[in-house]
Design goal:
By secondary structure, the chain is mainly α. The protein has a domain of 29 residues.
């Protein structure tokens, strides 16, 4: 039998506290969406808001799916400029 490898936590405790706070706000009906200002009723959206706020605060949270880092985006732009000349 192969021993299971322990993995490091993906999310820090600050991130889980942020998500917990947003979930409670959603349950109380006080959580609003950013742009439209509508009341949030979907738990997944509440989790996404909590993780987004944790990222802005600098907590240990993996990057959002679909988001590319500035370093990678800059590398692509520079290589595109060189090839076009």
């Amino acid at each position: 039998m192969a021993a299971k490898k322990k993995s490091a936590r993906k999310y820090g405790s600050a991130a889980s506290k942020s998500v917990e706070r947003e979930m409670k706000a959603m349950e109380h009906g006080t959580l609003k969406s950013g742009r439209s200002g509508k009341k949030v009723t979907n738990p997944r959206q509440a989790i996404a808001i909590g993780l987004s706020e944790a990222r802005k605060a600098g907590a240990k949270v993996p990057p959002a799916p679909g988001k590319k880092s500035a370093k990678k985006a800059g590398a692509k732009k520079s290589s595109a400029k060189k090839s076009s000349k």
